[in-house]
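Take a careful look at the protein record below. Let me know whether the structure tokens fit the sequence:
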Amino acid sequence: MGYTLSDMEQEKENIVQKICQAIYDKKGFNILALQVDGISTITDYLIIAEGNVDRHVVAIAQSVVKEIEEELGFRPYHMEGVNSGDWVLIDYVNVIVHIFMPESREKFRLEELWSKGKQVELNLALSV
């Protein structure tokens, strides 16, 4: 028995939830996940989040990569911004993650660019 479209969509949403949880666990904030598959030919989901300073942004990104590889066996197709840290992009093809310092997020305003995307409800487990 093969995957159905519903199974594949559920798997993508699972990846989105796990990435957002990894961001949250590393004290990332203002986490937004958008489903853009109907309006983008680049990806199906975008995740946008923030870290306090450049080191925090890089630490969040490294944590996401490590967690997703350990839990799901996926490695990013491409990654950018780790050296500068004001904006790190992690490309998992079906899911693209943008982690910004607050000033950079305000400058680029990706939420406005992708405002027609459907916001994904996040089910984050609160840290104790």
